[in-house]
Amino acid sequence: MNACTTHRHAGPRSQRPQHGAALVVGLLLLLVLTVLGTSGMVTATLELQMAGNVQWQERAFQAAEFALEQAIHTADLRTTYTVASARQFPAGGGEQAVPGSATDTYRYHLYFDSSATGLPPPNAAPGESALVAFYFVVEGTGTSARGATETHEQSFYVVAPANCFADGVSCRHFSAGERMRTYWIQQGVE
Hints:
Layout: H1 21-72, E1 87-89, E2 96-97, E3 105-112, E4 131-143, E5 149-161, H2 172-176
């Protein structure tokens, strides 16, 4: 019996026909890695920008606090400063640079509030009328880069002799001496 048999030789694997599955899987993995990398870069950039904004807002906050301190320590406290004609610093209505900063500025408005003045100072002894508490309000605004702005308002009393501000100008006894500051919470004010 003569049978004709044909033998097929299984050749090496490299000679098999390729269908491109490895290429497709590789490209999909590359696409996924590209999307992840790009979204990571965008997230990092946004977080860096948000951290910068917080920093500039904090600098504006500190500039507003600096404005309050400058107003409280001014020797120019007068009862003629009213809400309508407050003392403005700087006088031209612009902004003053915070010392040591190239980007931060401040300004403030200071006025005398006659509605709470003429009262004996807090914790005064009964019948003590030689001293009177004069009530002032200051509004300070600080600005920094990227449009960061903060506005703070603070009030304070000046305890002085009753006739100290009688002529509407600063009391010479008050401006000549060292001041002591006290703080309190006023009832009924937002």
